Amino acid sequence: MLELRPNCEYCDKDLPANSAEARICSYECTFCADCVSTVLHNVCPNCGGGFVPRPIRPSVAQRKGVGLVHQVASTKRVHLKHPKDEIADFVSRVKAIAPAER
Ligand SMILES: [Zn+2]
Ligand SMILES: [Zn+2]
């Protein structure tokens, strides 16, 4: 189950559970759409994978026992694990390779 992390790891923008701007990699590294397109060029700086839009969990229980009211979004903010200049080098090396070929 997704943690639904609360912020962009790169710019620290808030990404609430119902945000249409949240992007995640297969490890759920979470970034905003703006950072993914303008800085990361669809390269996760932690794993090198591509991103997809994060699905929105229903806020109310449309079915018994599920929804944000039961499985709440994470409040633990996550921050970059690598320096920004190193990330730029990493992204420039990986971005030319399509995600399915990485
Ligand atoms: Zn961002
Ligand atoms: Zn990742």
Describe the structure.
The chain is α+β, with helices and mostly antiparallel strands and 102 residues long. It is 17% helix and 8% strand. The protein contains two helices and three strands, in the order E-E-H-E-H. It has helices at 33-38, 84-94; strands spanning 22-24, 30-32, 52-53. The protein has a three-stranded antiparallel sheet. 25% of the residues are buried. The mean pLDDT is 98. Bound molecules: zinc ion (2 copies). Residues 25, 27, 29, 44, 46-47, 49 line the site of one zinc ion.
- Total helical elements: 2
Q: Mean of residue pLDDT?
A: 98
Order of helices and strands: EEHEH
Radius of gyration: 14 Å
Oligomer: single chain
Q: Please tell me what the overall shape is.
A: elongated
Summarize the amount of helix as a percent range.
10-25%
How are the secondary structure elements laid out?
Blueprint lengths: L21 E3 L5 E3 H6 L13 E2 L30 H11 L8
Antiparallel strand pairs: 1-2, 1-3
The structure holds zinc ion (ZN) (2 copies).
Which terms summarize this structure?
2 helices; about 100 residues; alpha+beta; binds zinc ion
Provide a brief overview of the structure.
The chain is of the alpha+beta class and 102 residues long.
